[in-house]
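Ticket #4471: structure export looks truncated?
Reporter: QA, pipeline team
Priority: medium

Steps to reproduce: submit the single chain below to the structure queue and open the exported record.
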Amino acid sequence: MIFAAPSAFFLLALLPVLWILQRRQRRADAIAYPSLGLFEGVPTTWRQRLLFIPPLCLHLALACLITCLARPQIETTDSREDREGISIQLLVDVSSSMDMDIQTEDGPMTRMEVAKKVMEEFVAGDGAELTGRPDDMIGIISFARYTDNVCPMTLGHDALVYMIRELTINDRPNEDGTAYGDATALAAAQLKAQEEREGALKSKVILLLTDGENNCGEQMPMQAAAMAKEWGIRLYTISLQNTRPSRLVTTEEGKFFRPQTVSESDQVLEKMALATGGVYRTAHDLDSLQAVYQEINTLEKTKLKEVEFSDLDDAFSRFALAALGLLLLRYILNATLLRISP
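Actual output as written to the record:
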């Protein structure tokens, strides 16, 4: 317990003065006797033995009231974890080539099904390596010849997971193609708009997953990457391959396969990532794609900050109630059992 106005305790020095004044007053009001011999042999009654209680109650009540003036407070110290999430745009290719099968432990799955499974685990967690991104604002953009804003930036990850599960491969021949330049430009523009609305964002990230080259659209991939770089957005690019690449690359986050010779289309993806401070990775099956998302999950960590805070609660009420109880007890005793005057 602490006191906000401890100088009030100087008033306690007045209590001895009050006691002296009361004692003198009682002597002045006493009946004078010529000799105490008249009271020899008279026993002391229980009422006489308890006459000190009313004055004591008064002094204790005054001490409690003085304590109230000192503003007693109880300090409660606690701590909490503040999490500062990041803003992520997930870009996924839905062109017809994503319908090709990939062999998994559970049997063949299309590239689209594999991509959806790993994206869902990235957002919600898989109970193992991927812990989910509960504190991040995440949006989804799909693309083939045209881009589609599947889900705007949101913290409602249940709805986000539902949207991921509902993704389908484009089945209109006249809309088939791969325009990840347009998709990247749209994602960058949305992240920039969010920052203008909400203030500076800790981190802005685009995750681009495709299995082909940019062959349509209005924005060239490097132009979109330049926009992202100018606005402080990191771009991670992932290329789905037909077969396992032959070269193994080791990083601090794990081991990843990389083709001996990078195709022209993949060179563009690599340049996009490097230009913005991100990374370029390849994947050929479910496990390798999960490994890539695990690496990105490690690179883009949510900022944790432990904040300690103190809360002060006034505690004068207990002393005020004690003073009221003591004064009430004094009044009752003076009016009943320990009454000394008519």
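Status: closed, not a bug. The export was complete when the record was re-opened. Leaving a note from the reviewer for reference: The mean pLDDT is 83.
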